[in-house]
TrEMBL record:
It catalyses: cytidine(1402) in 16S rRNA + S-adenosyl-L-methionine = N(4)-methylcytidine(1402) in 16S rRNA + S-adenosyl-L-homocysteine + H(+). It comes from Devosia litorisediminis. The lineage of its organism: Bacteria, Pseudomonadati, Pseudomonadota, Alphaproteobacteria, Hyphomicrobiales. It is found in: Cytoplasm. Its EC number is 2.1.1.199. This is Ribosomal RNA small subunit methyltransferase H.
Length: 332
């Protein structure tokens, strides 16, 4: 048997260019000698950079297709890289055998690698099965599109995609599937474009609907909330949590998690002041976005927002969705 071919996972040649990489490394500075959990391994861009900077990395991912990239880093950094298959919502239990942990980084959302693989069904730019399952199992986007009633589908597109024309899109989808099931990405994209039209210079009309379906298929908001609280349980005082999100709905959850008072009711100065909870996160950094230099080489970084904070000595909280602004699909 010949030598096994390993994919090139270097940051220059890998299939996914990690966004805000310099800012992520700076958030853990000094990083050499630290033990960091990369909760969304993907093609390993963050993991490689942190390993090259001298950190030990425990990488987690639920996507089976990332295994070759994990294998490559295991060969190169065999004593400082550990890959654990699983969902980042369970990162505290998955990393339990590798503690104590100094930091956690999460890159939320779909990767370029997944978008570029037509057979995964994430992109309306490539024809493929309407799938969108990151784990490769469970309910697919086609299952939702072909089964939900008009109002259920409209409510989902509105809640998870902020699609203001969700009702018209849902009506066109339901009408189209009466002829045949909707099975491919381009079929769905064309139905959406036909329903609401397309203006020159605007984003593709299917952008918000595809985002909504992907979030629903992968329970992304539930996973994000669970992961944030898992990181809170995992990290001791002084540990750093760094989160990169890609749209306003995700960023709102992260912002309110770090600072619960952002999501609570305002207090009148004329009323008795309500005692606030002990802060679990301190040194909350201002949101960071990609600069012109990064955007010129990686346009997909344009919507990325990085937030980071340091764990305090207060006990971790039970998982709680209230107050985080997690979108809910209204019942039909």
């Amino acid at each position: 048997m010949g030598k096994r071919s390993m994919p090139d996972t270097s940051s220059q040649a890998g299939p996914h260019v990690p966004v805000l990489l310099d800012e992520v490394l700076a958030a853990f500075d000094p990083i050499a000698g630290k033990r960091i959990v990369d909760g969304t391994f993907g093609a390993g861009g963050y993991s490689r950079a942190m390993l090259e900077a001298g950190a030990t990395v425990i990488a987690i991912d639920r996507d089976p297709s990332v295994q070759p990239f994990a294998d490559a880093l295991s060969v190169e950094f065999d004593d400082r890289f550990f890959f654990v298959p699983g969902t980042f919502s369970q990162l505290d239990s998955l990393a339990a055998d590798h503690g104590p942990i100094d930091g956690v980084v999460l890159d939320i959302g779909v990767s370029s690698m997944q978008l570029d693989q037509a057979e995964r069904g994430f992109s309306f730019m490539r024809d493929g099965p309407l799938d969108m399952r990151m784990s490769g199992s469970g309910e697919s986007a086609a299952d939702l599109v072909n089964a939900l009633e008009t109002e259920q589908l409209a409510n989902l597109l509105y809640a998870f995609g902020e699609e203001r024309k969700s009702r018209r899109i849902a009506q066109f989808i339901v009408a189209a599937r009466e002829t045949k099931p909707i099975e491919t990405t381009l079929e769905l994209a064309r139905i959406i474009e036909k329903s609401i039209g397309r203006k020159p210079g605007d984003a593709h009309p299917a952008t918000r609907s595809f985002q909504a379906l992907r979030i629903a298929v992968n329970a992304e908001f539930d996973q994000l909330v669970e992961a944030l609280f898992a990181a809170e349980r995992l990290l001791d005082e002084g540990g750093r949590l760094v989160v990169v999100s890609f749209h306003s709905l995700e960023d709102r959850i992260v912002k309110r998690f770090f600072d619960p008072e952002k999501g609570g009711p305002s207090q009148s100065r004329h009323m008795p002041q309500v005692q606030t909870e002990a802060r679990r996160w301190v040194e909350v950094a201002k949101a960071r976005k990609a600069g012109e230099a990064e955007l010129s080489g990686n346009p997909r970084a344009r919507s990325a927002v990085l937030r980071a904070a340091t764990r305090s000595d207060a006990d971790s909280r039970p998982v709680k969705f209230d107050g985080l602004g997690v979108p809910k699909v209204r019942e039909a």
